[in-house]
Write a structure and sequence with these properties.
Number of helices: 8
CATH superfamily of the largest domain: P-loop containing nucleotide triphosphate hydrolases
CATH architecture of the largest domain: 3-Layer(aba) Sandwich
Number of strands: 23
Largest sheet: 6 strands, mixed
CATH class of the largest domain: Alpha Beta
Number of domains: 2
């Protein structure tokens, strides 16, 4: 397998920068997920790595070799598309073996290699079928097989599970993770689905308007979001974000809000955006509550419930085991431990670093 490096990679469409000065290293054997909302530049970035789009600036390197202007077919990379892109008139066996025929391998070599990959993916009994005779999950495995048979330096996957139903997505997601573990393959994977990113990635790259917001392990980007964007994108429901002020008493204050931060008194006063995840809020008597609000709706998620509340003008979600014992219209008191509170600069949106006895900023 191979490592990939992006150096200042940029792609403009007219005056719009779809990808803007991206610097990234993908280690040999890593499963790197490009995550973000529609239009953030993740698929454009993947297509530049694949050679399907010419960069407006920057370079792509594969194992240290500059491949920026190398044609796609000569890059040691295999692409798996959202639409599968199978040949409808060819059997599963011929679809999988197509890249090997293009290389001029013998029929015996192709048959042997296709057999290996089909066994690996559980496709042996389907080799004589046409794509129209397959389910969505089977077609996706055929597309994976066609990529695997090439034994490429790295796999590039562009939202490969988005056309599958929920149950198939879960199954195929587990299959891809197991495949990555067995092959120690280098994978760059594009998705807008945070569940896919959190469960599959060794590292996640959060993209926003063509720029990298944060890079880190799944637990890192979830537990320590670098910006309001990351905090608001990850999580279901997303992190609660409330306009507030840190005051000299070492607590954060707002409308119907007063939570201690575990800071010594005398800290500099400043406006902040307070963040707290719904699962880190707990109910408490109103007289001891750090947040006081009114329940507006309660959602049943099976084993859990989400209560939507109004705290001042801020909408706040509380997530916990069912039943929470709350109904719309109830007055509710909430609190959270200082270690579960996040502070962000209200102007830049970037995370603020703080710890007991001091408060400082980190862009």
């Amino acid at each position: 397998m191979s490592g990939i490096r992006m150096e200042g990679l940029t792609r403009r469409f007219g005056s719009v920068a779809a990808v803007d000065d991206v610097w990234l290293d993908v280690a040999d054997g890593e499963f790197l997920v490009l995550l973000g909302p529609s239009g953030c530049g993740k698929s454009t970035l993947l297509r530049m790595i694949a050679g399907l789009l010419e960069p407006s600036g920057g370079r792509v390197l594969l194992d240290g070799a500059d491949i920026t202007h190398v044609p796609p077919q000569r890059r040691d990379l295999a692409m798996v598309f959202q639409s599968y892109a199978l040949y409808p008139h060819l059997s599963v066996a011929r679809n999988i073996g197509f890249p090997l025929r293009a290389r001029g391998l013998s029929k015996a070599e192709i048959r042997a290699r296709v057999g290996e990959v089909a066994t690996m993916l559980g496709l042996t009994d389907l080799l004589d079928r046409r794509p129209r005779e397959l389910s969505g999950g089977q077609r996706q495995r055929v597309a994976l097989g066609r990529a695997l048979v090439r034994d490429p330096g790295a796999f590039l996957m562009d939202e490969p599970l988005s056309n599958l139903d929920a149950a198939l997505r879960t199954t195929t997601r587990a299959e891809i993770v197991e495949l990555h573990r067995r092959l120690a393959a280098t994978v760059v994977y594009v998705t807008h689905d945070q569940v896919e990113a959190m469960t599959m990635a060794t590292r996640i790259v959060l993209l926003n308007e063509g720029r990298v917001e944060q890079v880190g392990a799944p637990a890192e980007v979830y537990d320590e979001p670098a910006s309001v964007f990351v905090a608001g994108f990850l999580g279901s429901p997303a992190m609660n974000l409330i306009d507030a002020v840190v005051r000299a008493d070492g607590a954060v204050h707002g409308c119907d809000l007063e939570l201690p931060l575990g800071l010594d008194a005398g800290v500099p006063e400043r406006p902040v955006t307070l963040g707290v995840r719904p699962e880190h809020l707990v109910t408490t008597p109103l007289e001891r509550a750090g947040l006081r609000g009114v329940v507006t709706a309660v959602e049943n998620l099976g084993g859990e419930e989400v209560a939507h509340c109004l705290v001042g003008a801020a909408r706040v979600g509380l997530r916990g085991p069912r039943p929470l014992g709350l109904r719309p219209g109830d007055r509710v008191g909430l609190t959270a431990a200082p270690e579960h509170l996040h502070l962000f600069d209200p102007d830049s949106g970037r995370r603020l670093a703080w710890q007991p006895a001091a408060a400082s900023t980190n862009a």
